[in-house]
Write a structure and sequence with these properties.
The complex is a heterodimer of chains A (333) and B (306). With 333 residues, chain A is mostly helical. Chain A is 74% helix and 0% strand. Chain A is built from 14 helices and no strands. In chain A, helix 11 packs antiparallel against helix 14 and helix 13 packs antiparallel against helix 14. Chain A is globular. Chain B starts with a helix and ends in a 10-residue tail after the last helix. The chains are: A mainly alpha (333), B mainly alpha (306). Chains A and B meet through helix 1, helix 2, helix 3, helix 5 and helix 6 of A and helix 1, helix 2, helix 5, helix 6 and helix 7 of B.
Chain lengths: 333, 306
């Protein structure tokens, strides 16, 4: 939902740029814009400001209490020695948690897993979703079926997605082994989720499947917003369909691509439920993602502060990667 | 910016060919040859298999009898379809009780979230104050930060308030978690209401409150309905907060109980598990079927992902 805020902050500008007279007039006669104004203006302004606060208050209070305050306290916890228990005492201990993290091989393994997991899903999903979106943008029969199926994962709880794929991967009665045995490709007794060689590709496939709706819908909406004249102009100039794709479609899609791939990366790096139900991080910590490790630290071993320190490290990593990625993409554009 | 353009584009053109009034996607100059068409259909078939087969398999497992489930040569279409898995799922006291817990939490959370989001969304759409920037920053931050940073302190705070390990506490957590999404959706509905209507009401002597209640609120009806449905399904599907905040088994929500089945009973309960999973998906599918147009228009893309 990062894109959300970008959309909102951008809309006032575009709103006036596209010249919606209604919106403009209202801003003059109705709630006046913030800015220097006469004595009458300040009276009006403080009234509208009071109105805005009053309207926001019912949402603001729970947000402050149960979102902003916990978040700040969570960041702070990462610099203390807080443990779970009945009388919780916490003492500031500076960077002790981070020194411990630095020497913690489980942490490094989980981070590596998280990066590989998020990266491979984002990339695979992007290409698969782009292909699907291009197909859905054509006039094909049976398009409705693919479109409906592409949206279904969106409606399913992650836990159910995981259960469903467990049925597929089940070593004895699963779909995958059944198919492989029938095609005589394999003996059909592979324990997909219990084998260290197969488990990671297996869960990545689930991650890709589960995230298809968001990516496909965003890319398709992006495709449909490209003006048809651009393609016609390209065709008149004798561009092949590959050239049109390369020089019209891709550049036009660039902002959408940057947004959706960043979101996919963040979501998957922070994901929990899917892998928790599929493998619970096993076998042998092979699929432990950062969130799973942090969850175990906090709620299995009661080490609240260490879990919070991991959370802080995750935020830093995400912000650093996103910063670099978005800067590169913007330069390209 | 990007999403905004997709949102606007999506709203304009929609997702269905039929709802696309003026923009023909392909001009005559860009028609495909038969070989390309064939490849396209092949690719489309590939997508249908990848996306559809797991679903089909869950469906078929739910209707298979116990002996058929352990058969060495499983078939996609059950040989003797049976409803026994569904009755077994319904006989599980835990499952039925968990479904009831889920209904209560999701209903309370979706209604309360929408109720507090409506006035705030109005303020976001119509006033430009510091609050607007603050709200946008908060929405952004709440997406990037991993939930572990919020859930540990929330766990402590709810305990201090006496709402630890309770459905009330979980509902509170859901309200805050659902709010960014509800605000975003509702404020786009507010924007779609012409300001002239409010001005006309003001000219007729209606106060601000009166204008809001008798002009804006009725026009927001569809937006409110959509928001309630989406927040309901998001809460219904949620897993992590429930896992952390609820410890007593009798408080567990449906995803928690189903996840526990996987761990403890394994292959024996495959059939009832598939049946229960199928039932747990129904509210989501129902809302999805009702609102497919809106989802696909990009308006909601990426909005609901735990």
């Amino acid at each position: 939902m990062i894109g959300v805020s970008a959309a909102q902050s951008a809309s006032p500008r575009t709103g006036t740029a596209t010249g919606r007279p209604a919106g403009r007039r209202s801003r003059r006669s109705g709630p006046p814009p913030a800015g220097p104004s006469g004595p009458r203006g300040t009276g009006l302004r403080s009234r509208t400001r009071r109105e805005a606060w009053l309207l926001m208050a019912p949402a603001l209070i729970p947000v402050a209490l149960f979102s902003i305050y916990p978040l700040l306290r969570g960041i702070w916890l990462g610099f203390t020695d807080t443990q779970a228990g009945y009388d919780i005492t916490s003492r500031f201990n500076g960077f002790d948690n981070y020194v411990r993290l630095w020497h913690d091989s489980y942490f490094w393994q989980a981070f590596r897993n998280g990066l590989i997991w998020a990266f491979s899903i984002t990339v695979l999903q992007f290409f698969l979703a782009l292909g699907l979106a291009l197909l859905l943008n054509e006039r094909l029969r049976m398009r409705w079926l693919a479109r409906t199926l592409a949206l279904v994962p969106w409606a399913m709880p992650p836990v159910i997605v995981a259960i469903m794929w467990q049925l597929v991967y089940n070593p004895d009665a699963g779909l995958l082994n059944g198919i492989l045995a029938k095609l005589h490709l394999a003996a059909g007794d592979t324990n997909w989720l219990g084998n260290t060689a197969t488990v990671f590709p297996a869960i990545v496939l689930v991650g890709v499947w589960a995230g298809m709706p968001q990516t496909t819908v965003s890319l398709l909406a992006g495709l449909q917003s490209i003006p048809g004249e651009l393609y016609e102009a390209g065709a008149v100039d004798g561009a092949s369909s590959w050239q049109r794709f390369r020089h019209v479609t891709l550049p036009q899609l660039r902002p959408v691509i940057a947004t959706i791939t960043s979101l996919d990366f963040v979501w998957n790096f922070n994901s929990f439920g899917l892998v928790y139900v599929l493998t619970d991080g096993g076998p042998a910590g092979k699929t432990t993602l950062p969130m799973l490790l942090a969850y175990n630290e906090a709620f299995k071993y009661g080490d609240f502060s260490y879990a919070a320190a991991m959370g802080n490290a995750m935020v830093l990593l995400i912000l650093a990667l996103l910063g670099v990625y978005l800067r590169v993409r913007m330069k390209e554009a | 910016m990007a999403v905004q353009s997709t949102v606007r584009a999506g709203r304009r053109t929609g997702f269905r060919a039929s709802s696309r009034p003026h923009s023909a996607p392909m001009s005559p100059a860009l028609r495909r040859g038969p070989a390309v068409r064939a490849l396209q259909y092949l690719a489309l078939a590939g997508y249908v298999v990848f996306l559809g087969f797991p679903l089909l398999w869950m469906l078929s497992t739910a209707f298979k009898s116990a002996p058929e489930l352990v058969s060495l040569h499983p078939t996609v279409i059950p040989r003797k379809p049976t409803l026994s898995n569904f009755s077994a799922a319904f006989r599980e006291q835990d499952l039925v009780h968990a479904a009831w817990n889920s209904v209560r939490v999701s209903a309370a959370a979706s209604l309360l979230t929408t109720a507090i989001a409506v006035p705030a969304a109005y303020a976001l759409a119509r006033y430009r104050t510091v609050l607007r920037r603050g709200a946008l920053t908060w929405i952004l931050v709440s997406q990037v930060f991993p939930v572990i940073l919020i859930v540990v302190p929330l766990f402590l705070i709810l305990q201090q308030l006496g709402a630890g390990n309770s459905l009330t506490g979980l509902t509170l957590a859901y309200i805050v978690w659902l709010l960014p999404f509800a605000l975003w959706m509702l404020q786009s509905y507010v924007r779609a209401i012409p300001v002239e209507l409010e001005q006309a009401a003001a000219v007729d002597g209606a106060g601000k409150l009166r204008t809001l209640v008798s002009v804006v609120l009725p026009l927001l009806g569809p937006g409110i309905a959509v928001t309630v449905m989406f927040t309901f399904v998001s809460a219904w599907n949620e897993f992590f907060f429930a896992l952390v905040l609820l410890q007593s088994p009798q408080l567990a929500t449906l995803p928690l109980t189903l996840a526990r089945f996987v761990g403890s009973e394994g292959i024996v309960a495959l059939g009832p598990l598939a049946a229960g999973a199928l039932l747990a998906t129904l509210p989501g599918l129902l809302v999805f079927a009702l609102l497919q147009r809106r989802i696909s228009s990009g308006l909601l893309s990426g909005a609901v992902k735990g």
